[in-house]
Amino acid sequence: MWNKIVEDCVSCFGNSRKYGWSKWKYTNNNSKLGLYVNIPFCEKKCFYCNFFSIKYDPILVDDYINALVKHARHFRGRKIGSIYFGGGTPSVLSLNQIQKLLQLLNNIFDLTSLYEFTFELNPESVSKEKLHLLKSLGVNRLSIGLQSTESESLKFLGRAHSFEKFCDIYNSARKEGFDNINIDLIYGLPNQIVEGWVGILEKVLLFDSEHLAIYPLSIEKDSLFYKNDVVIDDEIQRNMYDETVEILSSNNYFHYEISNWSKKNKESFHNIHYWRNLEYIGLGSGAAGYLNRIRYKNITDVKRYIRLVNGNSQRIKIERTYISEKLYGMESIILGLRLLNYGVDISYFSSPRLSGILLECLKNKMLLCQAGKVKLALDYVFVSSQILLKFME
Q: Is residue 224 situated within a structural domain?
């Protein structure tokens, strides 16, 4: 059976996809790592969010930055290919805090091969001065949490900014010279209709950003929406997704990952590093990392994280999983299938269990196989989680 699957794949089984770019070129070179820095502070928590975060406190943040830098020194000299500051809301940091942290990290890591440096921000916590500082310190990609252009939707989501504030920050970022900007959006809110979502999307397209990350609203456990029994409509969300695919494809955006679209050659380099199952360092309370065959997560308690780092404790990591060859293969399938234009090499499906699942998915046209690569069928991208779960043990 396995030989037949391989034969079909190599001979381009199924319909081929045509994209406007060449295949992603990135070798599995462990000498260049990703670096994720978690800033788990927010002015307020959005109603849909269940990420680990606490309220911004300038004194606590000063202590946290000192601990982050001390933690980072454990990896001194490591060559970094991409940096991603996420959270939380990294842009809540003050000018002095941003400058101190970025300059110290620059002195610790080898950034001579740094390709991409992303900094997440929310419009209400950004100033022109912060944008200027970020640009001067090497940040070359911004990810802005817009979520919606409508005041009522922003209020419903618990966002603290207005659309007008976003416009001001976006235009300021362009004037500052940022030429790689992602905009985050959420669709499928209760009582939102397809036509309303299309209007939001068309308004966002006027900004001509290089990248769009677009997610259906999901009700996550421990979020305020979950506690308040907020209900979403899967069928309407599917219709909105279909409209999104059609509109963005006609506006020169390429659907390269399940929830991500970009202009040509503007894919998120750092996130593709994750989806290719390559190694990265996770710094900060609540950060995850993958290094030396160990996947780990740091403690989700800022004050305890600070105490443990200052005490040189090894208990910073609360989760540690050794990635065996078998587990690596399964993870590579689950992560790699998210990359719609690249997929997963067929060699990862060689075990009897995985080849059996693959054959079933090929017969049902959930997956396609061409030139030795297995990919999600476009009609099944919206329900991809159901397919990915099949490969998990």
A: yes
Q: Which of 270, 291, 226 is nearest to 49 (CA)?
A: 226
pTM of model > 0.85: yes
**DSSP class per residue in 24-68:** P-----TTSEEEEEEE-EESS--TT--S--EE--HHHHHHHHHHH
For residue 95 the two structure tokens come to 């000018």
Cα 245 from chain centroid (whole Å): 19
- How many Å apart are CA 194 and CA 243, to the nearest integer? 8
Residue 310: both structure tokens together: 């200052």
Q: Is the dihedral of CA 162, 167, 168, 174 positive or negative?
A: positive
Three-state DSSP class for 264? coil
- How far apart (Å, rounded) are the C-alpha atoms in residues 257 and 264? 13
Q: Is residue 164 part of a domain?
A: yes
Distance CA 213, CA 113 (A): 26
Q: How many domains does the chain have?
A: 1
> Does residue 282 belong to any structural domain of this protein?
no
Integer Cα distance of 218 and 187 in angstroms = 10
Nearest alpha carbon to residue 282 among 52, 5, 50, 22: 52
Residues 6+ apart with CB under 8 A from 14: 362, 365, 368, 369, 370, 377
> Residue with structure tokens 């997440």?
120
| Model confidence pLDDT, tens digit, residues 190-249 | 999 999 999 999 999 999 999 999 999 999 999 999 999 999 999 999 999 999 999 999
| CATH number of the CATH domain containing 210 | 3.80.30.20
Tokens of 325: 């060859």
